[in-house]
Protein 1
Amino acid sequence: MSTMLDATPAPLGEFRNQPPTDFSKRESRESFKAALAQARAKFPVAVPLVIDGQRIETAEKIDSVNPAQFTEVVGTSASASAAHVDQAVLAARAAFRSWSRTEPEERAGVLIAAANLLKARKHFFAAIAVLESGKAWREADADVDEAIDFLEFYAREMVRIGQPRRLQHYLLGERNDLTYHALGVVGVIGPWNFPLAIPVGMAAAAIVAGNTVILKPAEQTPVITSLWVDLMLEAGLPPGVLHYLPGRGEVCGARLVQHPDVNMIVFTGSREVGLHIIREAATVRDGQHFVKRVVTEMGGKNALIVDGSADVDAAVPDVLYSAFGFSGQKCSACSRVILLEEVYDEVVTRLKEGAHSLKIGLPEHPATQVGPVIDADAAAKVRRYVELGRSQAKPIHIGDVSKYVGEGFFVPPSIFTVDSARHALAQEEIFGPVLTVLRAKDFDEALEIANSTPYALTGGVHSRTPSNLRRAREEFQAGNLYLNRTITGAIVGRQPFGGYRLSGIGSKAGGPDYLRQFLVARVATENMMRNGVASLTESAVQTWED
Ligand code: NAD
């Protein structure tokens, strides 16, 4: 029998990160292989639009292919038009009133239910990430773990922030309350490189804060995100709260940004598109009642400094993993390594040897370290930089991918040395497996080179000199600085993630400030010294008792 008590969500307990799968265990490997087969059996997955819980097909379709074997179609998605955006915004506005008034604990409960479903299907989701985005097993597993963490973390954050707080009493008989309220309809625009974790993080934060969401995934990875949308509905999310609009950025993405009834845009992607969105969102259009809030997480040109005191045995594998993991397509990837004179020759030699032994191959094979890049455009862009490196820089290593080209979007993992920090290879985000080596005469110059790009996303230092580590903390311009370790793989709650300068605007994802971006704070001040009281209200009793 249902009682009032049954409706009260259980307290959430302390946040804990989802542990990575231990692939050294045979049963994990077997289970993951089975998940790959299970995922493949569903190809091509049909991905419709989802508006107000209704699945809608469109005449235009977008194929999502396996970047490692591009003849394999992972899914075929519908493609939303501007009119579909308008339809979704209308439905999202209608749902906002009740969802925004749902208790924070209840909203958090939906995220926890979704996290539990995702934990139970972790290998299946990771298998889709391997086949749709070309991630190696470990990277795909981490993508799903991060999505689970975001759900668990933001659920708890909302319960914390959702508590109304009484502010100081200035006068006897005055009561001041600070409360947080949802903004309205939020447009979420995602990238392909963390096709689950990033859209889930942005959308779940908006949802748990009481907003209604229209989610537009990247063209390259609509399948995995659509499976999460289904999972949220299964977890009990009311259908009007989350709408799914796969499609072209310049069509449905652009309309979402321009729509007068979308109060906030949360974007992760390239600097070019991010800055365009900031400009577009600044224009107030007919019927608009809200200055759009914009959060844009953008690119980087991340550097790792290795000084003369560094443990080279530790530094070299950290540089190689940071530069070539997921083919250099993490926004946090190391794309510049700055070597001090004393270690320059040794580290360059060791990088060359290490790069030779990188295991290139199909991401579905467990030993693969470097797979393809995401699509033909990305491959062409990386190849242009490799050619630039051949002609204008000194190649240290250019990998051999001839065995794979023709079947997938493989490009050679490459390392070049350049003489100037102003060189295009040292300034521009390539977003592929290309590492540029620079030489610095001392730590001052190393920091100067590290800070010479307009970005500030991640950075790192390998050093056993405490004063250098201290200086790096002060002077290295990076949203996330890593000392004596790899510079990728931020963990929710432990390493809140995000950059500044031209790397983005907004508070760090997976950190204590993130959710407030999706809320407005209101203060209510009440004069409690009435000239007579019509009836002894609850609030009056409370204040007199304080
Ligand atoms: P992208 O900018 O090409 O696309 C991102 C999204 O924007 C896609 O969904 C796309 O369809 C959409 N879009 C394109 N044009 C649009 C328009 N005119 N209006 C609205 N939406 C539009 O980026 P990408 O290639 O998917 O991702 C790679 C980039 O993302 C890299 O630069 C990387 O550094 C960055 N990134 C940054 C972070 C971070 O946290 N800072 C994390 C991941 C990726």
Protein 2
Amino acid sequence: MTRVFSGIQPTGHLTLGNYLGAMRRWAEVDQHRADSLFCVVDLHALTVEHDPARVRRLSRQTATLLLAAGLDPDVCTVFLQSHVDEHSRLSYLLECVATDGEMRRMIQYKEKAAKERERGGSVRLSLLTYPVLMAADILAYGADEVPVGEDQAQHVELTRDLAVRFNQRYGHTFVVPRTTLPQVAARVMNLQDPTRKMGKSEDSGAGVVYLLDEPDTVRKKVMRAVTDSGREVAYDREGRPGVANLLDVLAACTGGNPESLADVYDSYGSLKKDTAEAVVEVLRPLQARHRELCADPAYVEGVLRDGAEKARALARPMVDTAYRAIGLLPPVPEPALSAAR
Ligand code: TYM
């Protein structure tokens, strides 16, 4: 059976981008057709300046939202990265295979490091090595597929390179995974600046629809979306990124096609209105389920505990195999090894 792995960082409130680019597919498609693991990657949240209490709060909230979005612990595994030591164990081995040059070429590293420097802060070493930990997340489970939004494709490419390199040097150990992207909304853009991705760590939330935004807030944000000076509704991501973004979001929410939807509208106003309502409708059941789950934190904790146990059982043998392959002795001598001495 195909194995799927994906992750999400608890670095901010989850956004419509996270949902349309990744979570929705995990819930609607991946968990039903594959052996799937979905991870709240809390260690990744420590790569930039953070408040420990906020990370704890957002880790719980992110896990709760994954369940609210429809991940079903009876058919998939949901867990916190820091509950499974194998991620960090494997990350170190992969650091011994990755190069400094390839880390510095990562677009997200360049962007986040520049932002951190602009703020007058220093760049943590873990921000540079972060894609290696992400590779470890994936390779520890022998995942075949990694369903992500477009912004993570470069990191999955790196994961493939590291897996191939490790296998060539030390013998076949890892499955070489592939990226799967959604057909529409692989990159939802910021409503106030449609040349930038809608991200959860923005300084201003005006262009970002959060999954827990009230319906009226969603409507306001979408109605105020920056479009362009033209009038005609056309799907042109380069020339008219604002309108194209709205068409992508509408298409993703209604199951349509952005190009054909463009023909249906003759004004930006009506496109915005329908997009806002479509988003409100997509978020409604998720928010209702989220309220129910918040009333039962013990349930969420139980899911995470069981999930970590299942994940550990899968990752442990894989990471042990990698330790042996790279030249590390097992802690307890195996009978065959002591006999050979
Ligand atoms: P993160 O937490 O930034 O995002 C989680 C998922 O949401 C997708 N996404 C988007 N898709 C479309 N439009 C957007 N505006 C948008 N914003 C976010 C992301 O592509 C991602 O699929 N490094 C990863 C987390 C990670 C991971 C992994 C993912 C760590 N280990 C292993 C897959 C496998 C990240 O920062 O995602």
